[in-house]
């Protein structure tokens, strides 16, 4: 009998067909995540799960899915999965890295330009008939050329953002938990410590993973350290920023603006954030191009196919130690 795969939310028809060719596939039709208990009931006899970043697959969920062998997460991030609990239960967890780098870097620049040049406000102003004449002071923004872009996290997306910054004539500095010299090759960027990153950046853009160390990494203290009139862009994970502190910094004009694609309590916004005129808010669309999302979905499906054909650890596995653990147990 073919393995049973649960697809937790609506997916591309081509991906559904691909999975049907290899598995007994259960496709859940909803476009929003199910509550944990309901999802666990649906997944109780699944051999594998094709999950989405909005699905919360915690330890309690994993206790209720005794047959589960693999989770293929349709996202590069996997903070929605309790990785320690999955590893303890010998469940492989896979993600979809690399294919979304360029799309997310493009979206970062769209947010950056929208915030710095006040594009959403100017668009609304024009649409509502308020545009009567050219004025010297109408929606004044800021130049990018000659300004300093600070990158928090120099992974693949951070490097792609740095490459784009050079086309705008910006100086680029970055901070990462570990400096890897070859990551800087050909980029003409400079490593600085975290405090200097905050003090020198005219625009701070966030590209690190969400971990215990990065939770609220940008809070009220850090925003007070930043330049007056600086901007923050976040296309990584919402909880890296203390959103209440951000609201206060934007209200007080300590920060000139922000561009956000992710939120601390996503999809709920911290009270007051949506009403601020100096913030651009997007609904987590960093990788939302047709080409990229389809490539991500194919990657997740391919991890499932490879695993049940015997590839262990499967492609793009974030806890490959499960395979070694099983070998050690057998020996």
Summarize it.
The chain is an alpha/beta fold. The chain folds into two domains: 4-99 and 290-330, NAD(P)-binding Rossmann-like Domain (Rossmann fold); 101-281, Rossmann fold. It has twelve helices and twelve strands.
How many separate domains make up the residues?
Answer: 2
* CATH fold name of the largest domain: Rossmann fold
**How far is the first residue's CA from the last residue's CA?**
28 Å
Query: If helices are DSSP runs of H or I spanning 4 or more residues, what is the number of helices?
Result: 12
Parts with pLDDT < 50 across at least 5 consecutive residues? 327-331
Can you write the helix and strand succession as a string?
A: EHEHEHEHEHHEHEEHEHEHEEHH
- Number of E strands: 12
Read across the widest sheet, the strand sequence of neighbours is 8-7-6-9-10-11-12
**Beta-strand level of the residues, as a percent range?**
15-25%
How would you describe the overall organization of this protein?
- This protein has 331 residues and is an alpha/beta fold.
- The protein folds into two domains: 137 residues, NAD(P)-binding Rossmann-like Domain (Rossmann fold); 181 residues, NAD(P)-binding Rossmann-like Domain (Rossmann fold), CATH 3.40.50.720.
- Helix content is 35%, strand content 15%.
- It is built from twelve helices and twelve strands.
- The strands form two sheets. It has a seven-stranded parallel β-sheet with strand order 8-7-6-9-10-11-12, with helices on both faces.
- Helix 3 links the parallel strand 3 and strand 4.
- The longest helix has 19 residues.
- The radius of gyration is 22 Å and the shape is globular.
- The two termini are 28 Å apart.
- The relative contact order is 0.14.
- The C terminus is likely disordered.
């Amino acid at each position: 009998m073919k393995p049973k795969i649960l697809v937790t939310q609506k997916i591309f028809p081509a991906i559904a067909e691909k999975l049907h060719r290899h598995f007994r596939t259960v496709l859940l039709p909803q476009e929003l995540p199910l509550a944990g208990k309901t999802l666990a009931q649906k997944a109780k006899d699944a051999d594998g799960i094709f999950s989405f970043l909005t699905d919360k697959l915690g330890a309690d969920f994993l206790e209720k899915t005794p047959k589960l062998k693999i989770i293929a997460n349709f996202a590069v991030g996997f903070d929605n999965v309790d990785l320690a609990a999955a590893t303890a239960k010998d469940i492989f967890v896979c993600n979809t890295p690399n294919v979304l780098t360029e799309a997310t870097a493009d979206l970062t620049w769209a947010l950056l330009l929208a915030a710095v040049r006040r594009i959403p406000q100017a668009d609304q102003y024009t649409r509502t008939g308020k545009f009567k004449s050219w004025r010297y002071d109408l929606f004044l923004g800021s130049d990018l050329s000659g300004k300093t872009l600070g990158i928090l996290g120099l992974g693949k997306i951070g490097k792609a953002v740095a490459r784009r910054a050079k086309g705008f004539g910006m100086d680029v500095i970055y901070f990462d938990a570990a400096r890897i010299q070859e990551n800087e090759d050909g980029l003409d960027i400079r490593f600085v410590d975290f405090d200097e990153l905050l003090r020198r950046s005219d625009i701070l853009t966030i590209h690190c993973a969400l971990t215990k160390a990065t939770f609220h990494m940008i809070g009220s203290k850090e925003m007070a350290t930043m330049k007056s009139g600086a901007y923050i862009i976040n296309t990584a994970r919402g909880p890296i920023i203390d959103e209440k502190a951000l609201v206060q910094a934007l209200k007080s004009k300590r920060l000139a603006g922000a561009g956000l694609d992710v939120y601390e309590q996503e999809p709920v916004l911290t009270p007051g954030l949506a009403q601020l005129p100096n913030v651009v808010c997007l609904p987590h669309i960093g990788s939302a191009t047709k080409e990229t999302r389809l490539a991500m979905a194919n990657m997740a499906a391919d991890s499932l196919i490879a695993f049940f054909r015997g590839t262990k650890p499967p492609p793009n596995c974030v806890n490959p130690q499960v395979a070694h653990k099983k070998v050690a147990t057998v020996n």
